[in-house]
Amino acid sequence: MIPWFEEAFSIWEMPVSWIECISVLAGIVAVYLAAKENILTWPIGLVNIATAFFIYYHVHLYSDMFLQIYFFGISLYGWWIWNTEHRAEVPLKWLNRRQRLQQCALLVVCSLLAGWWMTRIHLDFPKAFPHPAAFPYADTLVAIGSILANTLMAKRYLESWILWIAIDVLCVYLYLQKDILLIAMEFLIFLILAIYGFWNWMRLKKKQDRGSKVFHGLHQVP
């Protein structure tokens, strides 16, 4: 039997467990396959999500742990969608000022409420969670922000990438603090990909806007 949380090797004198290796490898492969629009991204992504669930429980990042349940369900749904139908083309767009204020308010309020509950989870469910949550408010901000960013991305809002960039920066800090170095390095890669994703969507948005102007110009009534 593989001792999942025992040290596989160390990086800069920081131990890296077997389960971290599996999770990070699956995560990077899943992202690569997603970029290639290969359907295998979904089952491999499920391996990443399942292993991450136990890693976050082990280091007491309970909000991140619960987030994996959401990601697991969304991934099963995504796998089914890719198997059964084509994704509709949705135009890229920005949120308006009112929508931005609403999303920011939703992020702050939900993070504060869920963060407060995370500070009590070891008191409410001591058998399941014998240790207090680590960084309860910051960890909850990551969880709520990830759900929000995922929703905005599905609707093709450019702000989704800005939110992912902020989340990835916070994740790198949190995971370094919890000594899960390989996971922190994985999110550093995700940060680079998020910056690229924002740049690429900005480029496509400008191209889309130019095409829209040409289309409307050709169809104007004399």
Quickly describe the structure:
This protein is mainly alpha-helical.
Keywords, please?
mainly alpha, two-stranded antiparallel sheet, 2 strands, 4% strand
Describe the structure.
With 222 residues, the chain is mainly alpha-helical. The protein has one domain (15-84, 94-216). Helices cover 73% and strands 4% of the residues. The protein is built from seven helices and two strands. The protein has a two-stranded antiparallel sheet with strand order 1-2. The chain is globular, with a radius of gyration of 20 Å. The model has no long low-confidence stretch (mean pLDDT 85).
Number of strands: 2
Apparent shape: globular
Task: Give the termini distance in whole angstroms.
Answer: 77 Å
Q: Strand share of the residues?
A: under 5%
Mean pLDDT: 85
Total count of helical runs of at least 4 residues: 7
> Main sheet, how many strands, which sense, barrel?
2 strands, antiparallel
Order of helices and strands: EEHHHHHHH
List unreliable stretches of 5+ residues. none
What share of the residues lie within helices? over 70%
| Structural classification | mainly alpha
The structural domain count equals 1
Mind telling me the C-alpha Rg?
20 Å
Strand line-up of the largest beta sheet: 1-2
